[in-house]
Amino acid sequence: MTKINRETVIAEALDLLDEVGLDAVSTRRLAKRLGVEQPSLYWHFRTKNELLAAMAEAAMAPHATAALPTPDDDWRDWFLDNTRNFRRTLLMRRDGARLHAGSTPTGDLDRIRRKMNFLVASGVPEHDAQMAMLTASRFTVGSVLEEQADTAHPDTGSDLPADVPAIDHESAFEAGLALILNGLLSRTTP
């Protein structure tokens, strides 16, 4: 029997996700891919939900390891860059937004606190900084959910009336992000 470790299981599960999509990821399929019996996976993950949580955390690694803001950074530029980086990370994996939605960033709490402290130190009221980060996160996940759904089913928009323009997902994301930032700017001290 093949010996596996937790990291191998997660990496293969993410590759499986990219190949078949979130709905088709199963422990049976993953065990077959790994060349092990399905119960072997339970040494590393007691439930499929534990596996999905570990996959979500691993899929977010590019964002979770991005540089944290420094006191010299302009908070507006940082806020935009941070949100764009989050979007790029979600787009790296098939169904990345669905995998991430509802996950709890337990391993990322110190980084989140440092980001919040940076915004507050830059003059953003604490509650507004919290709400802006939450809003940007949820807006980004929703935007990527729609974009990945369109990519998975490109023919769904083909029956739209001729006067309804096709959605340019990146432009729509940038426009929404600008609205969030402008709303936040109106609430901060100069």
TrEMBL record:
Pfam families: TetR_C_1 (PF02909), TetR_N (PF00440)
Keywords, ordered alphabetically: DNA-binding, Repressor, Transcription, Transcription regulation
Annotated SUPFAM superfamilies: Homeodomain-like (SSF46689), Tetracyclin repressor-like, C-terminal domain (SSF48498)
Source domain of life: Bacteria
Classification via InterPro entries: DNA-bd_HTH_TetR-type_CS, Homeodomain-like_sf, HTH-type_TetR-like_transc_reg, HTH_TetR, Repressor_TetR_C, Tet_transcr_reg_TetR, Tet_transcr_reg_TetR-rel_C_sf
Keyword Transcription regulation set for record: yes
Positions of the DNA-binding region: 26-45
PROSITE patterns hit by this protein: HTH_TETR_1 (PS01081), HTH_TETR_2 (PS50977)
Domain HTH tetR-type: 3-63
PANTHER family referenced in this protein's UniProt entry, alphabetically: HTH-TYPE TRANSCRIPTIONAL REGULATOR RUTR, TRANSCRIPTIONAL REGULATORY PROTEIN
Protein name per UniProt: TetR/AcrR family transcriptional regulator C-terminal domain-containing protein
